[in-house]
Design brief:
By secondary structure, the protein is mostly beta strands. The protein folds into 2 domains: 5-87, Elongation Factor Tu (Ef-tu), domain 3 (Beta Barrel), CATH 2.40.30; 98-161, SH3 type barrels. It is 6% helix and 42% strand. The chain has 2 helices and 13 strands; from the N terminus they run ββββββαβαββββββ. The protein has helices at 70-75, 98-101; strands at residues 5-15, 20-25, 39-40, 47-48, 50-56, 59-64, 80-84, 105-108, 113-122, 127-132, 139-143, 151-153, 158-161. The strands form 3 sheets. Strands 11-10-9-8-13-12 form a 6-stranded mixed β-sheet. A 5-stranded antiparallel β-sheet has the order 5-6-2-1-7. Strands 3-4 form a two-stranded antiparallel sheet. A hairpin with a 6-residue loop joins β3 and β4 (47-48). It is elongated and about 60 Å long. The model has no long low-confidence stretch (mean pLDDT 90).
Length: 168
């Protein structure tokens, strides 16, 4: 995936029989996903001209100009929607796009390497960093809070962590 693209949502299936779709928005202001249209597929080869119709539980009903039937909508289930980074708002110093955190090296306050960020998970109560331990397939979930992660340095590709006792 290009670093110039950010995942802003996903198609979670069809809605009705007229080619409408269920859309999940990953934007801080959920409705903003429509502002970034046209969106693209991960590889950038497919454009999606998105128009939100109404909110529903866990997302929106939307129309995509390129989709006319329920079958076409069903075929897009699971497709992630990407916007160009340049279209998105600048973030304050203490906020990050999840894609920018993946792959960063995590070190404790003493300089010991704890692992590498494999994924960023959001289950509603706050973000968790899924950290893969060095030379292992084991992962550890670290709360992405100021107390547990006091420093994120994108320029050097490092995160300094102060994990809760016994986590690592």
């Amino acid at each position: 995936m290009s670093e110039d693209k950010i995942c802003v949502g996903a198609i979670s299936g069809s809605y009705g029989v007229r080619g409408e779709l269920r859309i999940k928005s990953f934007c801080a202001v959920a409705e903003d996903i429509e502002k970034y249209s046209p969106l693209t597929s991960e590889d950038g080869t497919t454009l999606f001209h998105l128009a939100l119709i109404r909110p529903i539980k866990n997302g929106f009903v939307a129309r995509i100009a390129e989709v006319a039937t329920k079958e076409e909508a069903d075929a897009l289930k699971g497709v992630q929607l990407f916007a160009e980074r340049a279209q998105l708002p600048s973030l304050p110093d203490d906020e990050y796009y999840h894609t920018d955190l993946i792959g960063l090296t995590v070190m404790d306050t003493g300089g010991t390497v704890l692992g590498q960020v494999k994924n960023v998970l959001d289950h509603g109560a706050g973000d968790l960093l899924d950290i893969q331990r060095p030379n292992s397939s084991e992962t550890v979930l670290l709360p992405f809070t100021l107390a547990a992660v006091p420093t994120v340095d994108l320029a050097t590709g490092r995160i300094i962590a102060d994990p809760p006792e016994g986590l690592f």
